[in-house]
Write a structure and sequence with these properties.
single chain; mainly alpha; 186 residues; globular; 2 strands
Amino acid sequence: MNIVPLRAVAFQILFLLVAIAIEARIFRQRMNLDHKTCVQYATTVNLLSVVVGWIIFFAAEPFLPSNLDAQLISYMFFDQLFHDSLSSSVPSIIIVVGFFIFFGTWLLKVEGLNLLEMILGKKKAEEKPEQLNFKFRNVRNRSQNRFIFRGTGTRAATVLLANACSFSAILLLMAIRLIERLYYAP
């Protein structure tokens, strides 16, 4: 009988929805595309990164040491870690793996976006070095006027910013979940 980790699936869907919403907003602001295209791009690159991530996970899982494998399975199915000799090094392992996942996801999303535009037959605009759009804005005190600038940046920088924002939001959701579990557990 197969056991499906429904909690992991539910959180994966929640994280995907959050990432798509945040990244589509940033794509809209920085790439000057319409709403529909931004949501489609964000959805495509996030689904690609999730599928590739799970494939890598299932390919690497058989090669993990048995105690790390047991910790991982315990966390996936029961949402808790075993207390053994490995549990003291788990936070450092999570930080290192998270760092690699972040940059791996960023590279995958940049290449996925380029591949998506190539498949759709859209011309890729030549990326220019950092362009700055200056806007004049009045602040509350009308005697104090200032210039506000917003860099449009390159596609890779835009995807990096979008990825960083979505990862930060997901990390915040995970922290809230951990706090809720620690303080409000039965």
